[in-house]
């Protein structure tokens, strides 16, 4: 554990300029986890309840060719981009345990603040999505047994937010997840296996399916562009340095092991449920796959409850940089159960999740959240910034072709981010007209 308030003055002597930026040490635990535990954190980040939406939000807009090629390319490109960031973790002779610390070390104070803002918007939107997912899973259980519509989606989103707050108060930091990662994996396997088995059963019974991409030419253009942003959202957390901060030495070597695990074995369950769901239901696939499958009520209830509980655990991963900032800023160290620490977590984390829950209930459009988040923060953080940081940090060691390659990536993903943001805003605008706030979707 690091003492809150201690400051590290950073300067980069190898980039050519000296950026005198003070960054705080952390109140959370670092350098304590094996590469395998970190690999499980990353794999949990992929195989969360969001996978139940990819058949509808990725495959339906892109079709077989676009969806399969897009997911395979996104896997390879995401591994490459994450590897670039991982290799910079000890750049300049010190560990950069936050994304903003690394950006500030390379570029200076403005980049430090910009990266901070982008990352926290990214994580906030992801967490809103998890709360929507958890609420949708609870509602799915409710309608299995009662179809009186007495309780609406916003009610279940509120319940989900309460569960997330209780979990956040009880688990102080990312490394403390421990056994919860195993529990999360079990929950993931339950809802993925159920979704796959029931989808295969339905698919075998259905002899004809429509895989045509729906909509007018203009509508298709916008939905395909938004789906491309969803591809980047599938594999990337936007918080790789924060996760890497928890791994033991040697940090780069161990992190690369974790990334290779994530992007090989770790992606298989996600790809399986995505492709099989689309194969079974075609263009009519729901954005929440468990709403499309048919089967025994208790099996579907088990899958939905597992998706709900796994979402609660997974949200904690993506909220951990926010919690780390608050704990470090206000000196929250020592025993988890100390009255001061417990009271602070109730107020700070509870308040953060209350705001997230309110926004989630207000605009519960999950696909739009994914598209907008991918466009405005995931793409800039994971692809644009990663390539340019690596180019700037390793400028003297790169040959001309390598420099051109990194600049091509920066330009391409900048254009993609801009186009995807326009498409996502259009989708949100359309959905806002079709559905009122606090909609019961």
From TrEMBL:
Ranges of residues in domain Amino acid transporter transmembrane: 33-425
GO biological process: amino acid transport
Keyword field contains Transport: yes
UniProt xrefs under PANTHER family: OS05G0424000 PROTEIN-RELATED
One GO CC annotation: membrane
Name of the protein: Amino acid transporter transmembrane domain-containing protein
Keyword presence, Protein biosynthesis: no
TM regions (residue ranges): 62-81, 124-145, 152-171, 177-200, 258-281, 301-321, 342-363, 369-386, 407-428
Pfam short name (any one): Aa_trans
Subcellular localization: Membrane
């Amino acid at each position: 554990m690091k003492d809150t308030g201690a400051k590290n003055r950073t300067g980069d002597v190898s980039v050519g300029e000296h950026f005198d930026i003070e960054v705080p040490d952390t109140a959370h635990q670092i350098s304590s986890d094996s590469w395998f535990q970190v690999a499980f954190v990353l794999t949990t980040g992929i195989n969360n309840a969001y996978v139940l939406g990819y058949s509808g939000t990725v495959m339906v807009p892109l079709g077989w060719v676009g969806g399969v090629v897009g997911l395979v390319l996104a896997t390879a490109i995401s591994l490459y981009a994450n590897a670039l960031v991982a290799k910079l973790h000890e750049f300049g002779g010190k560990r950069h345990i936050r994304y903003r610390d690394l950006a500030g070390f390379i570029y200076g104070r403005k980049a430090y603040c910009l990266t901070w803002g982008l990352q926290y918007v990214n994580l906030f939107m992801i967490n809103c999505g998890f709360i929507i997912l958890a609420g949708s899973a609870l509602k799915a259980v409710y309608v299995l047994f009662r179809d009186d519509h007495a309780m609406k989606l916003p009610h279940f989103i509120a319940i989900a937010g309460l569960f997330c707050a209780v979990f956040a108060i009880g688990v102080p930091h990312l490394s403390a997840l421990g056994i919860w990662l195993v529990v999360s994996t079990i929950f993931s396997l339950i809802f993925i296996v159920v979704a796959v088995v029931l989808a295969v059963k339905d698919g075998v019974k259905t002899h004809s399916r429509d895989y045509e991409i729906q909509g007018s030419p203009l509508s298709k253009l916008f939905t395909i562009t938004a789906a491309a942003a969803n591809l980047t959202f599938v594999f990337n957390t936007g918080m790789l340095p924060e996760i890497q901060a928890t791994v033991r030495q040697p940090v780069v070597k161990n992190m690369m092991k974790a990334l290779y695990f994530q992007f090989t074995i770790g992606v298989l369950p996600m790809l399986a449920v995505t492709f099989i769901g689309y194969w079974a239901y075609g263009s009519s696939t729901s954005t929440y796959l468990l709403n499309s499958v048919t089967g025994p009520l208790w099996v579907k209830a088990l899958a939905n409850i597992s998706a709900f509980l796994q979402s609660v655990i997974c949200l904690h991963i993506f909220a951990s940089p926010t919690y780390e900032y608050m704990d470090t800023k206000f000196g929250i160290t020592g025993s988890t159960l100390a009255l001061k620490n417990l009271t602070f977590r109730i107020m700070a984390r509870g308040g953060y999740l209350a705001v997230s829950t309110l926004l989630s209930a207000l605009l519960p459009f999950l696909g739009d959240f994914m598209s907008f988040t991918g466009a405005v923060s995931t793409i800039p953080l994971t692809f644009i910034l990663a390539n340019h940081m690596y180019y700037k940090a390793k400028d003297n060691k790169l040959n001309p072709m390598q420099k051109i390659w990194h600049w091509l990536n920066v330009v391409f993903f900048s254009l993609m981010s801009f186009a995807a943001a326009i498409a996502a805003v259009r989708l949100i605008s359309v959905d806002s007209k079709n559905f009122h706030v606090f909609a019961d979707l």
